Amino acid sequence: MKTAKITPVTVQKVARLARVPLTKTQEKDMTKKIGVTVQYISQLESLPTKDVTETSQVAGLENVYREDEIDTERMFTQEQALANAKRTHNGFFVVDAVFDEK
User: Which UniProt keywords are listed (predicted)?
Assistant: First the structure.
């Protein structure tokens, strides 16, 4: 695979997309630095990975899950939940609209 050459035009485009203003000096500097980074990363293409098993992580850590349990001791009744509401309707909170219709 051929490595893309990083040009000032490429850096200008990325900076514009990221909304990062760059001076001409910064643009030149970034062109050089990004070019070195891309060259370094492109070396990975030459590594022999044919017999390497794919993995998403190597630490062996796993998420710990628990079953959801309903704790009725800590539950509010509907009346308790709505007790301090400014406005309610048919057992629900009433709030002002958050979207403008245009």
Answer: ATP-binding, Ligase, Nucleotide-binding, Protein biosynthesis
Question: Is there a contact between 27 and 15 (Cβ–Cβ < 8 Å)?
Answer: yes
Give the E-state strand segments of the chain in sequence order. Answer: 88-89, 92-93
Cα dist from 46 to 25, 26, 31, 57, 67, whole Å = 33, 31, 24, 22, 46
pLDDT digits (tens, 9 = 90+) for 56-70: 888 888 888 989 999
- The pLDDT value recorded for residue 59 is 87
Domain enclosing residue 26, as ranges:
8-46
- Residue 99 is predicted with a pLDDT of 83
CA-closest candidate to residue 13, choices 3, 25, 4, 22: 22
Asked if the structure places residue 41 within a domain, the reply is yes
In the chain, the number of structural domains is 1
Residue recorded with tokens 């301090």: 84
